[in-house]
UniProtKB/TrEMBL annotation:
Superkingdom to which the source organism belongs: Eukaryota
Location of the Cytidyltransferase-like domain: 30-212
Protein name: Cytidyltransferase-like domain-containing protein
Pfam families from the UniProt entry: CTP_transf_like
Species assigned in the record: Phaeocystis antarctica
GO molecular function annotation: ATP hydrolysis activity; nicotinamide-nucleotide adenylyltransferase activity
GO cellular component: cytoplasm; nucleus
SUPFAM superfamilies: Nucleotidylyl transferase
Length: 216
């Protein structure tokens, strides 16, 4: 079927689907939200200001391309996301759910959700960006052409990861992360790939840090 993002919050947006004029300038945080934290909202609001987005969307995928759902259930994550969005008293934050696991499919679904010609920024962490640019998710030799198509429809904002944070990725400094992101050929990125440094104190409020603290 057609690519779908289902808005779950707020209720007045949850009814009608497709081509919403109020979503003409959207900052989308694509994350596993396990759990959602203040770090998510801080990064989201600072990115909205930086890129001039008028609405924010916390987007949860029902399935991940290569990570099983562990920790909080999808329902629990969505409930926590909605609490986080409801705490934004500006009313600019929505929550949504998608069945698409692959990033390029999510981007297509977001385009279908928004008004024609909407400016959509997709905000992802550095670890997610590494997966997006892994050739194994694409047909033989097709990655750059698929990504080139992606950048015709959306901007991608990659947020740095705390170099000291636990991760199954190699430890890279923020400068090394930025160089890795911006190494994508300019003809592919079309000036629509951006790197932002996550505030160091806020980075310590990451989901993995919260899970670690709960285990301690």
């Amino acid at each position: 079927g057609a690519p779908r993002v289902h808005i779950t919050f707020p209720q007045q947006l949850a009814g009608a689907q497709g081509g919403r004029p109020e979503l003409a300038s959207l900052m989308v945080m694509d994350s596993s939200f396990n759990p959602p934290t203040r770090a998510h909202m801080h990064l989201l609001t600072s990115s909205m200001q930086r890129f001039g987005a008028s609405k924010a969307l916390l987007l949860l995928a029902k399935q991940n391309a290569d990570k099983a759902v562990v920790g909080a259930s999808l329902v629990q994550r969505l409930q926590m996301m909605e609490l986080l969005a409801a705490a934004d008293d500006t009313g600019r934050t929505c929550c949504g759910l998608t069945g698409h696991a692959l990033f390029v499919d999510k981007a297509a679904a977001l385009q279908a959700l928004c008004a024609p010609g909407a400016r959509v920024h997709m905000l992802v962490g550095f670890d997610t960006w590494i997966r997006i640019t892994d050739p194994k998710y694409y047909g033989e030799g097709q990655m750059l052409s698929v990504l080139s198509g992606l950048f015709t429809s959306v901007d991608v904002v990659v947020a740095s990861r705390d170099p000291a944070a636990a991760s199954n990725m190699p430890a890279l400094s923020v400068a090394e992360q930025e160089a890795a992101v911006l190494s994508l050929p300019p003809a592919v990125a079309r000036g629509r790939l951006h790197f932002v440094e996550t505030d160091a104190e806020v980075a310590q409020l990451s989901s993995s840090a919260v899970r670690e603290a709960l285990r301690a």
